[in-house]
Design brief:
It is built from 3 helices and 6 strands, in the order H-E-E-H-E-H-E-E-E. It is an alpha+beta fold and 132 residues long. It has a single domain, classed as 2,3-Dihydroxybiphenyl 1,2-Dioxygenase, domain 1 (Roll), CATH 3.10.180. The strands form 2 sheets. Strands 3-6-5-4 form a 4-stranded mixed beta sheet, with helices on one face. A two-stranded antiparallel ribbon has the order 1-2. The chain starts with 16 loop residues before the first helix and ends with a strand. The model has no long low-confidence stretch (mean pLDDT 95).
Length: 132
């Protein structure tokens, strides 16, 4: 297959839109790709978060990841993960900006440093740093 998919967009309805945009654009550092104001409060901001992948996991794998990162099952059906250069610094910045730490940066058996957060837009996220 020659790859018919060109892009994946995760569309998040954020009750506090301004907070969510500031958090993901300014704190995470995702550059703004497009902003549209359609009037009457209808706004959208599209942020460039780098390469996107779709990770499909069995419930057993999600249990394993939660056990490693957090110590027990906490994942909702959908969780968003961002690869970053410095997971500890990004997690700290996110907590300072209003995210709630679920688990601090933790070394995983697959050689990454992962932190789990409850973030604006009602998303549970992992920021991870590859250690190899």
């Amino acid at each position: 297959m020659d790859g018919r998919v060109l892009q994946m967009r995760l569309v998040v309805e954020a009750a506090d839109y301004d907070e969510a945009v500031a958090f993901y654009r300014d704190v995470l550092g995702a550059p703004e790709e497009l902003f549209i104001d359609s009037g009457d409060g209808a706004r959208v901001t599209i942020l460039d978060v780098g390469r996107a992948t779709l990770e499909l996991s069995t419930p057993e794998q999600v249990d394993l990841i939660d056990e490693v990162e957090v110590g027990h099952r906490v994942s909702p059906r959908i969780r968003v993960a961002f690869e970053v250069v410095d997971a500890a610094a990004v997690a700290s910045d996110m907590v300072a900006a209003g995210a709630v730490e679920i688990a601090p940066p933790t070394r995983t058996p697959w050689r990454s440093l992962n932190a789990r957060l409850a973030a604006p837009g009602d998303l549970q996220i992992t920021v991870f740093e590859e250690l190899d």
